[in-house]
Amino acid sequence: MSQSENKADQGSASLQREIQQRQDKVDQQGPRASTVSKDKEAVQTSDHQYPGTPLPAQHLEKPGLEAEMQQKPEFLAPDYCGSGKLAGMAALITGGDSGIGRAVAVLYAREGADVAIVYLNEDKDAEDTKRYVEAEGQSCLLIRGDVTDPSFCRDAAHQAQERFGRLDILVNNAAFQEHAEKLTDLTEDRFDLTMKTNVYGYFHMAKAALPYLKRGASIINTGSVTGLQGSEHLLDYSTTKGAIHAFTKSLASNLLEQGIRVNAVAPGPVWTPLNPADQSPEKIAKFGSQTDYKRPAQPQELSPSYVFLAAPCCSSYITGIVLPVTGSVGG
User: Fold this and answer.
1) Which is catalytic among the residues 237, 293, 306, 317?
2) What is the DSSP letter of 200?
3) Which uninterrupted H or E stretch holds 325?
4) Does this model's pTM top 0.70?
5) Cα–Cα distance for residue pair 300/322, rounded to 1 Å
6) Does the annotation mark 50 as catalytic?
């Protein structure tokens, strides 16, 4: 990595922390959040007992390390058996070092795909994810950099192609999120960073990967329930997720005749580093309790949907959809 690339990565991480610190000061001036209600038990729809609220009241420094989370996300999906759905394929996953991206990387490897992981600067998480991918018997390439930089995105796609000799799946998953109680708290630099990471980053990566994608390839974008319903305190984030949903549908139409499918997954609240690096400890303690399930999803509850949308044997007749996985009736 060049010195200029390293400075760019650190610059984005520093800007994320600066925005977080400003918001933390605003939060400290307001009333404390109410305590978590203990009379609502988390809904379980399988034999596995998923954790409900209260969750550990923890606040992470951005961009957020999974290694530092007190309660580790569940991503290994031990009950999921691979069957070669992605055998011989290669995938590139942005934000693949932790959270949903890590869970997807593990299942893609379990289904026979080699995986390239793009991440900002979370080296410890990225190395851990690489170990989990390799434990599934597949190769893993780590690519450190900033998806807001189009030249980096071009280089990342080229590296993946060079390493694996092909590129079949692009998962756009990297994101920036920071809440704001009021519109007046939403500064232009924050809006720009959210837009450039969440929308421009998806655009840059799709454009960079396209020359390597052949008939049968797919692009999967991570949207959000906030893009479907809006969110009172995530004005900029919700805006970008709505844009991602529209981008998904439009790009699906644009690439259909090339035999390339484009879909999105719209998660509800998911237990990943993104959220403890956003909300206050008090709010994180009850994260996900507002869903019908009365708990957040674990990453391993999302990752099979990414397999489904990537595998031609499962979804060759599906493109341009936004699949809600929200923990609530009707999405």
Assistant:
1) 237
2) I
3) strand 322-325
4) yes
5) 19
6) no
